[in-house]
From TrEMBL:
Chain ranges of the HTH gntR-type domain: 6-75
Taxonomic superkingdom: Bacteria
Organism of this sequence: Cryptosporangium aurantiacum
Keywords on record: DNA-binding, Transcription, Transcription regulation
Pfam family, one: FCD
PROSITE patterns: HTH_GNTR (PS50949)
Keyword Cytoplasm: no
Name of the protein in question: Transcriptional regulator, GntR family
Recorded GO MF terms: DNA binding; DNA-binding transcription factor activity
Length: 247
């Protein structure tokens, strides 16, 4: 009986989690107040509260207190995935070079795939808009780091493999912090470095638009190698170092 009592909160959490994942519960939808949920699931308050704690820790719900409170649903998104990945990398004290190498291997292949696709012209246009977004905030390190991460994430998404897109999002949470660190006033020649990076992105967009898949892959491989040397020359050497900086 004791084991069954311990398992009950997990079963409730599993049931609610599946409703969210299947789309039967929408972002921001209210599950109701605690008394309603106790009746709905036929469980005790302690079991329900433990189930809600599990889901809240996973980022799938938030519990609002007070007269107008209740349980609010949150759909899984890239931010949740990225936060979890970043925590795992921190816990294992993964070198920043290791994280960057993973992205460096992934993105040139994505560039080649996008350049060879039927939708390459539309993709090039979208990448140019993301470059323009970065240019608008080139003097704001925090905003630039976020805008730069969006460019890299979208490049992989445009390749059409959703699983790789999720992996890229996980890596970008970490690398975006590195870009922000490099962009701080204490780093040398940051303005010129950022602008050179944007010119290189524009070159990639042109190669993609032209459908030159081989050249796009080669160019982006070189770009990632150069940017990697800049990033890895800065103070942060591990993921946990980056997490100490404001972002």
């Amino acid at each position: 009986m004791a084991a069954e009592a311990r398992e009950k909160p997990q079963r409730i959490a599993d049931e609610i989690r599946m409703l969210i994942v299947r789309g039967e519960l929408s972002e921001g939808e209210s599950l109701g107040r605690e008394p309603d949920l106790v009746e709905r699931f036929g469980v005790s308050r302690p079991s329900l509260r433990e189930a809600l704690r599990i889901l809240e820790a996973e980022g799938l719900i938030s519990v609002k207190r007070g007269a107008r409170g209740g349980v609010v649903v949150h759909r899984p998104d890239h931010r949740m995935t990225a936060r979890t990945a970043a925590l795992v990398l921190q816990a294992r004290n993964v070198p920043l070079a290791d994280v960057y190498d993973a992205r460096r291997l992934l993105e040139p292949v994505a560039a080649r795939t996008v350049a060879a696709s039927d939708g390459r012209r539309e993709a090039a246009g979208e990448l140019r808009r993301l470059i323009a977004d970065q240019l608008e905030v080139v003097d704001d390190p925090d905003a630039f780091g976020r805008a730069n991460a969006r460019f890299h994430a979208r490049l992989v998404e445009l390749a059409g493999n959703r699983t790789l897109g999720i992996v890229a999002e996980m890596l970008n949470e970490v690398v975006a912090r590195a870009v922000t660190t490099v962009s701080q006033p204490s780093a040398a020649d940051t303005s010129a470095t950022r602008l050179r990076g944007l010119r290189s992105q524009a070159r990639l967009a042109a190669l993609i638009e032209d459908g030159d898949a081989v050249a796009a892959e080669h160019h982006w491989s070189e770009h990632m190698a150069v940017v990697g040397r800049v990033l890895l020359a800065q103070r942060a050497k591990t993921v946990i170092d980056l997490m100490r900086h404001d972002y």
